[in-house]
Amino acid sequence: RIEDCTPSFMPNFFHAYSFSVKDKTLYLTAVRSPYYADHGWQRDGEFRYTDQGEHFFSYTFERYSKNERSRLIKAARELNTPPTIIIENNHEGKLGHIFRGIECDKENVHISAIKRSEDGRGTVIRIYEADGIDTSFTVEGDLLPAPLTKRISHYSVDTYYLADGETEWKEVLLTELPL
Length: 179
Fold this sequence. Notes:
Oligomer: single chain
Number of helices: 1
Low-confidence stretches: 1-15
Shape: extended
Structural class: mainly beta
Largest sheet: 4 strands, antiparallel
Strand order of the largest sheet: 4-5-8-9
Order of helices and strands: EEHEEEEEEE
Mean pLDDT: 80
Radius of gyration: 22 Å
Helix content: under 10%
Strand content: 25-35%
């Protein structure tokens, strides 16, 4: 039983097939078994059922308000991305370089992708703003060839391209073509 639960209580990116709330009880459909992509067509041996077999999943319930989207996104990513464990051999002395990965200095600005560009001649980073606030931010770390300092509009999704050997990031379309 969940007290004071309304449909707006649930995040809009809840990863389940369906949920509903009735009389302070939350009902969750976690798995289903219809034909995959079945739209009433004739079925033959090529059709498979979805969600067959053993399933493992985790879920959590989080209260949030409109100005806490970033906290909720961070909690969802932590739940859905378990830590990577790297076993280090016993050795004398200190470890070498400290790897910083990638980080953004603003809580409401999220990095959704970092990759090699489609043309193979640069780096692409995709960033979005989650709390509805125009924000200046800096993204830096060992995964980036140069820091990225820009301003993002509220609820925007922006894509930036940095050509190999360059230091100036350029905003591009989602398709990596120039604006």
